Amino acid sequence: MTGIPEGRPVSDSVLAASGIRPEQREKLPPCSGGCVSGADIRGWIGVVAQRQKLGLSDQEAYREAWNILAAANPFPATMGRVCPHPCEAHCNRKEKDGPVAINALERFLGDWALATKVPLPRLEPRGSRTESIGVVGSGPAGLSFAYQMARRGYPVTVYEREEKPGGMLQYGIPQYRLPEDVIASEVQRILDMGVDLRLETVVGRDITPAELRDRHQVLFLGIGAGQGLTLGIPGEEGAGTWTGTEYLALVNQGNAVALGDRVVVVGGGNTAVDAARTARRTGAEVTILYRRTRDEMPALEGEIEDALTEGVRIVFLATPIEIQRENGRIRSVSVQRMVLGEPDSSGRRAPIPVPGSTYALETDALISAVSQRPDWEVLGELSPGTTWLKAAPDGEYREGLWAGGDLTGLGVAGSAISQGRHAAEAVDARLRGVPVPAVAQQDPVSSDMVKSDFYPASDPVVPPERPPEQWLAFPDEEPRGTISEEEFLQEVSRCFSCGLCYGCEQCFMFCNAEGLVQLEHARPGRYFVVGLDLCKACGKCVDLCPCGFLSSC
């Protein structure tokens, strides 16, 4: 901004007196700044939005956008379904008419890539590197690391204890949120790069940690946190109780779980809500007990709303203290009412029992989804011997040993994907004897740096949705679908392109001195060059730039 009062017109003499010369300065968009997987969101959206200016067909633009997106995240169709999309909360367009529906766009592009069988992008030919890479665990962190190393030409072997790859994506997310064929197809695309997958291979039983270290120059640990914690209350041992991760894994493996007609789920996170909605699909009456209020509930707001729509009952400020059984079967749960006191170490107000407020809640089953941790026993001598593994920021744990994902602390799948990628970048640099490329730290483009009034008003796309009454009638079907191609193309056009030129030509049209020259071969962010020798320092272009790309130098 020039500091000149807003409004038009602004006289040439006033602008000239300001003495402002333009500088083309790319800036961090708030969407990428808020993306846990570190994707170049503005980049892949911009290629499609600007396809006509770039001389690309729709399909050519999709392909270029795919290569940008998949360079950071090999699971777009998956993340387009399960990511909490914090990028949208940071989008500068939200203050005008609603954020760009980035998650819906990612899902469309991911589904397009699966339908058209587009491969993942490579950096180096297969076999161009000889150092052997081992990965323990085929969850999002392990597979992200494996992919990034394979695309750099390394031979990679992944060891997975289960019969199917995917980790918590495969066994911890219900079918109605993430269909098995979606995650299976995206995993297969990674394997098609030459990654060797060893299923039903248990470290310590089928191969020792020492053998892994001898076999591979680099070993990445990505086993995840699939071991659910119990409540530790009287009566918990016995039939009719499961942890959240245990229950979801059993269902995703195709096992019939006898819950009965009434189910209590304990917890307030995504696993608790997933377990409750999955149990509801069996026809059971489901009650969630959460010891804090809805404001503190860590589950995704949309998932909570969907659970309520499906008839799940949520009781806040309540926690179980004992399970009553009769002839070994659960009959009821003693529930303690709570109030919130002062904040605890988590920063949230601590729940405090209310004296004399216990009551009995009849139930046939109880699912504990309060937290989870890694199963350290499988790592043997590689186990850290602590609750969480402490790794360096780039993932290095010990010499030749790297780690990422939930075993370093609970997080979302996008974070695990990012950790796998960063570890691979660091490992590759170490093996090649070069420094890891530095990432410039900068503040994202703020809303006052863009001119939202320049962009036409347009409501964000809303993905198609089944009628709520069908959600339970078709328990494994996704309640929401993928947007259409027409909707995809309309939605990408809503992007402000914060901090990067998108060829609006405002600067070019208003420059009287011909200080801006159009490039013959344009590319995203590069449509003009500035000729400071002709610039009159009037500041018009800086003042008019709607996306905040031009700055004063």
| Weakly predicted, low-confidence segments | 1-17
Termini Cα gap: 12 Å
Which strand-content bin applies to the residues?
15-25%
Work out the helicity level: 25-40%
User: In this structure, how is the largest beta sheet organized?
Assistant: 6 strands, mixed
Strands, total number? 21
Round the mean pLDDT to the nearest integer and report it: 91
CATH class of the largest domain: Alpha Beta
Question: How many helices does DSSP assign?
Answer: 18
CATH topology of the largest domain: FAD/NAD(P)-binding domain
CATH-level-2 architecture of the largest domain = 3-Layer(bba) Sandwich
Q: Please state how the strands of the largest beta sheet are arranged side by side.
A: 4-3-2-5-18-17
Kindly report the name of the CATH homologous superfamily of the largest domain.
FAD/NAD(P)-binding domain
Gyration radius, to the nearest Å?
27 Å
Overview features:
18 helices, 553 residues, Alpha-Beta Plaits, globular, Fumarate Reductase Iron-sulfur Protein, Chain B, domain 2, disordered N terminus, 4 domains, six-stranded mixed beta sheet, five-stranded parallel beta sheet, FAD/NAD(P)-binding domain, alpha/beta
